[in-house]
Amino acid sequence: MTTGTGPGTDAATAGYLLRLGDDALIAGHRMAEVVTRAPQLEEDVALANIALDLLGQARPLLTRAGELEGEGRDEDTLAYLRDEPEFRNCLLVELPNTDFAHTIARHLLFSCYARELYAALAASTDDVLAGVAGKAVKELDYHRDHAAQWTVRLGDGTEESAARMAAALDAAWPHVDEMFTADPVISAAAASGAGVDPAGLRPAWDSAVDAVLAEAGLHRPDLPPQAGPGGRGGRHGLHTQSFGFLLAEMQHVHRSHPGAAW
Amino acid sequence: MTLTGTAPAGPRQRFDAMISGEERIEPRDWMPDDYRATLIRQIAQHAHSEIIGMQPEGNWITRAPSLKRKAVLIAKVQDEAGHGLYLYSAAETLGVDRAELLDLLHEGRQRYSSIFNYPTPTWADVGAIGWLVDGAAITNQVPLCRCSYGPYARAMVRICKEESFHQRQGFEILHVLARGTPRQRAMAQDAVDRWYWPSLMMFGPPDSESAHSGKSMAWRIKRYSNDDLRQRFVDIIAEQVRALGLTLPDPDLAWNAERGHYDFGAVDWAEFTAVLKGDGPCNRQRIEHRRAAHADGAWVREAARAHAAKQADRAAAREAAR
Ligand SMILES: [Fe+2]
Ligand SMILES: [Fe+2]
C-alpha cells in the first residue's frame, strides 16, 4: 500500500502506473504484431514470449492504476475505452514494425531503459508496483539480451543488415530522451517513493547501449530529440500518426459490444 | 538418407519384428524406403499445418477483446509455432531439413491441413477453432503418441498436452459468448455453424477412398481409420455442445442406441476436394502470408549466418595467433 502523505499521492501514483502500464501494453502490442511474420520460427516463439511478458507486466500495472484512481476502471476499461489523448506511453514504444531491424532497435532501446527502471522500482513504496518490478526485471534481462544479440548479428552480419540496423536506430533515436524526462506526475511519484526519477537511469542505459553498439560495429546516432509541439509528447497524450490506427485495431471489438464480458 | 537400398534379410526382418512387437523405430534403425517417405510426408504436412495454423487465429491477436484473452491467444499461437519446431525436428531425424521442407510448402508441393483455408471473420472463430479444430486435432493425434516412429511419437506426447489446453480455452471462449449478449451468442452460434463440417473433414476422406491408410496401419503409424476417428469426435462434441447451450448445424445428428454412437449427416466431400485443390476461401492468402514472411526475413537469416561465419573466423584467427 502507498504510504499516504497527502490527498495527491494516490492520484500521482495512479498516473505514474498508467505511464508504466501504457508503455508495457503498447510495447507488447507492437511486438505481438510480428508474430506469424518473423524471419524464422524461433523468432515467432521468442517475440511472442516477449509480447506475453510485456502484457503480463501491463495488466497488474493498469489494474493497480485503476484501483488507486478510484473511479472503477479496470485493466480492460483502461486499455479499451480510453481515447488516444488519454494514453500516456512514451512514443518510442508505439513506433511501427517497419522491418525486423526497426522492431529490434525499438526493443533494444526500450528494454535497456525498462530493465534499469524496474531494477530501481523493486524498492517502490507501492507494494504492487514493487512486486511487478521484481518479476519484470528478470524478464527484461532476457529481452535486453535478445535485442542485443540481434543488434550485434544485424550490425556485424551483411552490408544490407548493417545499413538497415543503422537506419532503424536513426528512426528510434529521437524518441530516447522522452523516456528519461520526468513530467510533474512522474516527479510527484518519485518524490513519494512510489516511482523513480528516470533521469537517474540514463548513465546505466548509455553504457549498456554503447556496449551493444560497439560490439555490433554501429555508431550511436548523432540526432537531436524529436521536438513536440510545446514540448509535449506521449506523456501528455500527444502521439505519433500510426498510434490511432493501433488503437482502432486494438479497441474495435471491445467497443462494438458495450458492456459485454469476454 | 543413407540407410536405404535393397534390404538385406536381417534388417528387414528385424524391422518387421519391431513393428509387430510394438517397439519404437529410432532414427538409426534400418527402415524401408517407403516407411521413411511416408513418415516424411506425414510429419512435414503436420509441421506445415502447425505453422499455417498460426495465421487464422494470429490475425485476432491485435483485436482480442480483453487483455486476458489477448494473453491466452498469444500463448496459443506461440504454442503452435513450438509444435512446428518439434515436428520439423522430428522430420529432420529422417534426413530432410527444415529449410527444404519450407521451400516445398512455399512452392505448394507439400500440403498442410485444409482446415486452415477457412477464414476467421469474428472473435467467436477463435473459440470455435479451439473447441472444434484443436479438438479434432487431439482426436487424430492422441493415437499418434503410440506411433511406431520414436521421434514422432515423442513429439506428439508433448503436443497433445498443449492441444487439450487449447481445446478447453476455445470451449471457454464459446461458453462465455453463449451466455453473453444476444449478439455475442449469435456470433458464437454462427462460428460453430461454419466450423462444424470443416472440422469433420479434418479426419480425411471416408475409409472407402483413403489412399494411404492401409500401409500406415500396417506400420503402426496410423491406428484407427478416418471414419472411426471422425465418429469418436462427433460423439464427443455432440455431448459438449449441450454444455455450451449451442447447436451443431446437422439435422441428422442423433443418438443411435443400437450402435452406441451418434449418427451424423453426410459430409460434403466435393467442398473438401475443392479446398484441398487450392480453391478454398483462404488458400492463396495463407501461402502468400508464409512466403512474404519468409522472403522479408531472408536478409535477417543471411545476416545471422554471415555473423556466425565471421565469429567462427575470428575465433580461428585468435586460436592461430596463440
Ligand atoms: Fe498445434
Ligand atoms: Fe493447438
Largest sheet: spatial strand order of chain B:
1-2
- What is the makeup of the main sheet of chain A? none
Q: What does the overall shape of chain A look like?
A: globular
Quickly count the domains of chain B. 2
Named CATH topology of chain A: Ferritin
Present as ligands are: fe (ii) ion
What is the CATH T-level topology of the largest domain in chain B?
Answer: Ferritin
What is the general shape of chain B?
Answer: globular
Which consecutive residue ranges of chain B, at least 5 long each, have pLDDT under 50? none
What does this protein look like?
The complex is a heterodimer of chains A (262) and B (322). With 262 residues, chain A is mainly alpha-helical. Chain A contains 10 helices and no strands. The longest helix of chain A is centred in the middle third of the chain and has 30 residues. The N terminus of chain A is likely disordered. Chain B is mainly α and 322 residues long. Chain B folds into 2 domains: 267 residues, Up-down Bundle (Ferritin); 41 residues. Chain B has a two-stranded antiparallel ribbon. In chain B, strand 1 and strand 2 form a beta hairpin. In chain B, helix 4 runs antiparallel to helix 7, helix 6 packs parallel to helix 8 and helix 6 packs antiparallel against helix 10. The two termini of chain B are 40 Å apart. The interface between A and B is large, with 49 and 48 residues. The complex binds fe (ii) ion (2 copies). One fe (ii) ion binds next to helix 7 of chain B. The site of one fe (ii) ion has 5 residues of chain B, from helix 4 and helix 7.
Task: Describe the structure concisely for a colleague.
The complex is a heterodimer of chains A (262) and B (322). With 262 residues, chain A is an all-alpha fold.
List keywords for this structure.
heterodimer; A: 262 residues; mainly alpha; Ferritin; 10 helices; B: 322 residues; 2 domains; two-stranded antiparallel ribbon; 66% helix; globular; binds fe (ii) ion; Ferritin-like (chain A); Ferritin-like_SF (chain A); Aromatic_CoA_ox/epox (chain A); Ring-1,2-phenylacetyl-CoA epoxidase subunit PaaC (chain A)
